[in-house]
Amino acid sequence: MAPGAPSSSPSPVLAVLLFSSLVLSPAQAIVVYTDREVHGAVGSRVTLHCSFWSSEWVSDDISFTWRYQPEGGRDAISIFHYAKGQPYIDEVGTFKERIQWVGDPQWKDGSIVIHNLDYSDNGTFTCDVKNPPDIVGKTSQVTLYVFEKVPTRYGVVLGAVIGGVLGVVLLGLLLFYLIRYCWLRRQAALQRRLSAMEKGKLHKPSKDSKRGRQTPVLYAMLDHTRSTKAVSEKKAKGLGESRKDKKRLAGRAGDRGSGVEPSKGAKVVVIEMELRKDEQSSELRPAVKSPSRTSLKNALKNMMGLDSEK
Amino acid sequence: MLLLLLGIIVLHVAVLVLLFVSTIVSQWMVGNGHATDLWQNCTTSPSGNVQHCFMSSANEWLQSVQATMILSVIFSVLSLFLFFCQLFTLTKGGRFYITGVFQILAGLCVMSAASIYTVRHLDWHYGSENSYGFAYILAWVAFPLALLSGVVYVILRKRE
After folding, report:
1. A157 vs A1, A36, A160, A173, B43, CA distance in Å?
2. Closest-approach residue (CA) in chain A for B102
């Protein structure tokens, strides 16, 4: 911990106290809040927080008083007083020229900073606030401990380790999915281009066959009914579905590569793949055109050997 | 298949129970009336059944043991949750990678907790007459079991 940042007990506790006192105590009394314990390193500075709750508005006559009682000492001495908008600081005692006023009455804040801490500063500091006419109420005490090296507060390492590891794991998971997603997209694009290229080569000789033209169209229609459903489903299912598609696609590509004879079956498969490509590109733009028409057109275009690729 | 599934779940739950017990139970270190765990330091008075417990020290190493134990519990719970998720969403033939990775992480966490405790426990325990309690041993037992179930998850393929 940096020497300039002294540790203090958590402020949520104060908030809860404040809330409970607001709700539970209707009595008109001033309530002062400080930390219970403050730790500081030798030579560093420490902030002694003091705030209060009052049923009255903050008046101009508000006064803050800090008293100090050394460890083992009996008497408390006044070391700081704020009244009528003017802070009065100890100029003769042990805290001579070491106290700084950092509070603001408008914010109900009466904090002071003690600079250049020494072991002899160990002791209890009492904050007293008077907000006339609201003057009835208890004071609040904070104990200052000066260390050579401020010990780690309980839970700091615990929280840091847990938070750190969880954060790293989460980040790693995110990165993994991002990379996989990008990689799959690239693979799919490559596959599509490859299949389109091979198709162009395969189809030119068979464009005059009449039967060969008819069957694929039929298939295209059949396949399209499936694919329009798939488009809507795909968004919900996400990656897993598309991966499945791609696997199927890859499998088909392999099949076609091995099947040498230009049979009818091979052609059908090719058309189906082309449709799937169309379906994926139609995912990106809004469905203005009828998808069935475009896919049919594409199928026909491919049959006639027109290269639809840019 | 169902038997295998049941076996895996039982193994996972067993690991989880081990982790919970070893994290919570105050038996990491025992010896003449003392019993300490990661959280508190209890002394049973020799005369009666009065037990005094103090919060354990704020030693950095002890805190990291606490943190890694908590992390291992978190990872194991997460892994069980992910397993059930993947059981219903995974495609046929897929592997339970994420589940397995989290379970292995839990195993590694409990291992690091137990090893840090082994090496560093003298920083906050000054008595030499203490011996390791059963919670400490359970933590060491949980480590290979968690690793095993994690590996099983990774190897396993889903069937319908």
Report:
1. 12, 22, 5, 24, 26
2. A169
Spatial neighbors of A280 by CB under 8 A, at least 6 apart, are A188, A192
Q: Which helix (H) or strand (E) holds B34?
A: strand B34-36
Chain B residues 71-90 within an 8 A CB cutoff of chain A: 71, 74-75, 89-90
pTM score, two decimals?
A: 0.52
Largest CA distance in chain A: 112
Confidence (pLDDT) at B79: 92
Q: What is the pLDDT of residue B102?
A: 92
- Cβ within 8 Å, pair B66-A165: no
Q: Would you call A175 an interface residue with chain B, using a CB distance cutoff of 8 Å?
A: no
Mutate to test the interface with A, among B62, B71, B96, B99 (most CBs of A within 10 A): B71
Structural domains in chain B? 2-27+58-155 (1.20.140.150)
A151 touches chain B (CB under 8 A): yes
Chain B residues close to A156, C-beta within 8 Å: 63
Checking if the pLDDT of A25 tops 80, the result is: no
| Structure-token match 């906050």, residue found | B124
Q: Which of 214-253 (A) contact B at CB < 8 A?
A: 240, 244
Cα angle B56, B62, B65; round to 5: 125
> What is the pLDDT at residue A21?
53
The ipTM value here is: 0.79
- The answer to whether the beta carbons of residues A51 and A108 sit under 8 Å apart is yes
Closest by alpha carbon to B38, among B65, B11, B13?
B65
Contact A32, A139 (CB under 8 A): yes
Nearest CA-CA distance, residue B134 and chain A, Å: 23
Average pLDDT, chain A: 71
Count Cβ atoms below 10 Å from residue B34 Cβ, excluding itself.
17
User: What b/e readout covers B130-151, taking b as 16+ CB neighbours within 10 angstroms?
Assistant: bebbebbebbbbbbebbbebbe
Other beta carbons less than 10 A from residue A75's beta carbon = 8
Residue A239 pLDDT = 45
Residue whose structure tokens are 């090296």: A149
Q: Are the beta carbons of A154 and B60 separated by less than 8 Å?
A: no
pLDDT value for B107: 93
Minimum-distance CB partner of B64 among A161, A173, A244: A161
d(CA A46, CA A140): 17
Q: Is A161 on the interface with B (CB under 8 A)?
A: yes
**Average pLDDT of span A64-70:** 91
* CA A284/CA A126 separation, integer angstroms: 69
Q: Which residues of A touch B82 (CB under 8 A)?
A: none
